[in-house]
């Protein structure tokens, strides 16, 4: 995919956990203006906003859903029912999420491989353009591998070509190369247990499996990521416990 430098400079972020906060930190460093929200309300974000500085402000979920050029969605699947669906209509959404049954409960369509997590998300937000990114890397590796040398690549999947280019340009702006991983139906290639998930960015595979938080990460180039995606296998989602 031909990625041009992003002319988008404003993004809303729904979810202030580890992934959402990591993306926010990189975004403000890249001169984006960010509105970030969570389910607990703007007052719970004071410390984070103080850290992020003048390019960030806290808002309601509604504020973040309607702000800027695209929306980063970093919330569990179980929280989708609380999203302002009408306000998100027509928007491009960078979705960072995965299906974890211990947190989300069992979802029959996903367990039966009738749909991918990304396609399921799209069904919950039918009038948006879902694009998957940042869902195959652990949160603390995001700042460690941004602007790495050689440059680290992340897979991006989506059905809308323009939306996928917009998300890819933002991912590039905050410090990563991108690899076009196909459509939402093909996004299983970088879901948990696929062979192109978080462990591919580990500096030490054995150490990562024992204590992933201690691992400092290692770059994965675009060419290597393409190889991993091509060799990926669709996991047994019904057996997934985490």
Strand content: 5-15%
How do the strands line up in the largest sheet? 3-2-1-4-5-6-7-8
The residue-averaged pLDDT reads 96
Sheet of most strands: 8 strands, mixed
Rg measurement, Å: 17 Å
Distance between the termini: 33 Å
Secondary-structure element sequence? EHEHEHEHEHHHEHEHEHH
Secondary structure: helix percent: 25-40%
Structural class: alpha/beta
Number of helical segments with 4 or more residues: 11
What shape does the CA trace take?
globular
- Strand count: 8
Low-confidence stretches: none
What does this structure look like?
This protein is α/β, with parallel strands linked by helices and 242 residues long. It has an 8-stranded mixed sheet with strand order 3-2-1-4-5-6-7-8, with helices on both faces. Helix content is 32%, strand content 14%. It has 11 helices and 8 strands. The mean pLDDT is 96. The longest helix has 13 residues.
Lay out the secondary structure.
Layout: E1 10-14, H1 18-29, E2 33-37, H2 46-52, E3 56-58, H3 61-65, E4 70-73, H4 85-88, E5 92-95, H5 101-104, H6 108-111, H7 117-124, E6 129-132, H8 141-145, E7 153-158, H9 161-173, E8 177-180, H10 205-210, H11 222-231
Parallel strand pairs: 1-2, 1-4, 2-3, 4-5, 5-6, 7-8
Antiparallel strand pairs: 6-7
């Amino acid at each position: 995919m031909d990625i041009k430098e992003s002319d988008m400079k404003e993004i809303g972020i729904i979810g202030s956990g580890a992934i959402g906060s990591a993306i926010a930190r990189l975004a403000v460093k890249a001169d984006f203006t960010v509105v970030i929200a969570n389910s607990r309300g703007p007052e719970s974000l004071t410390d984070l906003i103080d850290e992020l500085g003048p390019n960030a402000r806290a808002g309601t979920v509604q504020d973040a859903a309607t702000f800027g050029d695209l929306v980063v969605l970093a919330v569990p699947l179980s929280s989708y029912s609380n999203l302002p669906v009408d306000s998100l209509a027509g928007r491009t959404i960078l979705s960072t999420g995965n299906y974890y049954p211990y947190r989300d409960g069992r979802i029959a369509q996903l367990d039966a491989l009738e749909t991918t997590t990304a396609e399921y998300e799209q069904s919950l937000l039918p009038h948006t353009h879902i694009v998957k990114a940042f869902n195959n890397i652990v949160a603390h590796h995001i700042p460690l591998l941004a602007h790495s040398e050689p440059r680290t690549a992340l897979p991006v999947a989506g059905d809308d070509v323009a939306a996928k280019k917009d998300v890819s340009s933002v991912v590039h702006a905050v410090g990563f190369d991108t690899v076009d991983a196909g459509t939402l139906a093909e996004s299983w290639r970088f879901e948990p247990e696929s062979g192109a998930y978080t462990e591919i960015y580990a500096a030490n595979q054995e150490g990562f499996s024992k204590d992933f938080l201690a691992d400092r990460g290692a770059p994965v180039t675009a060419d290597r990521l393409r190889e991993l995606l091509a060799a990926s296998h669709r996991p047994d989602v019904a057996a997934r416990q985490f």
